[in-house]
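User: I'm curious whether this sequence folds into something compact or stays loose and floppy. Could you predict its structure so I can see for myself?
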Amino acid sequence: MYYVFCTGFGISTWSSNNMKDWKQEKPVFDKAPQWTVEAIPGFKGHIWAPDISFHNGKYYLYYAISVFGKNTSCIGLAVNKTLHTSSPDYKWEDFGKIIQSVPGRDMWNAIDPNLIVEDNGTPWLSFGSFWSGIKLVKLKNDLTAVAAPQQWFSIAARKRDVLLPDSVAGDAAIEAPFIFKKGKYYYLFVSFDYCCRAEKSTYKIVVGRSEKVTGPYTDKDNIAMVLGGGSLLLQGDKNWYGVGHNGTYRFDGHDYLIFHGYDAADKGRSKLRIELLEWDTQGWPVIPGH
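Assistant: Here's the prediction. I'll summarize afterward.
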């Protein structure tokens, strides 16, 4: 059985036995965890950008709570032994807040989490949206908190108008990191430009790579992603206004790019898309037919 977790009230959950026909399951949370309401005044339970991974015999689901266009944001964590709702072991345990961004203190935004675990077992969480870009922080081995002493890295960014006040998201539109290990490289996928605007969406997916999880990540032209680099993987066309916020996973011997696009044939509504991911002779990801 395949599962998709996505933005929605309580975290929307869908299941499928063929990755084509999807059944909506119960959300992860019946109501917003109490800590989310206390951390973000006015939060109503619409949870963003969940990231699911299997480690240590359990499923770790990182998720974001925020208010659109502000960096009053937190990343939380819920853990379950199984994803099968019919199992007697099915029960989400919420570990609460992992990271919080505070307006006026932080020039980064604690949303869009993605877990990557090095081959030596060291876990890292990448995240970020707008402001000063994408961050990477080392986690404790149990994946439930930031490790001490804290180790933070900037791994991707775009140029921001320095005259803008810190309180606004700004014009450096970058978010949705996802790190995928393939061969000797860690590949950093991020989304440029604007999501969530239906037919006005300009979302696109770019990529860079590094031999170290902490970077520096560079694109095909050897431009550092912290300096605005990123090689285009997929963008909108006449059928899709924009595409972005991808996950990259390996199932049954194949690599897949899982993301959402704004369907031009359906008034720009956001749809799940799944594409096979292949690799060129230089080791860069490509989508057949694009």
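Summary: The mean pLDDT is 95. The first helix runs from residue 34 to 39.
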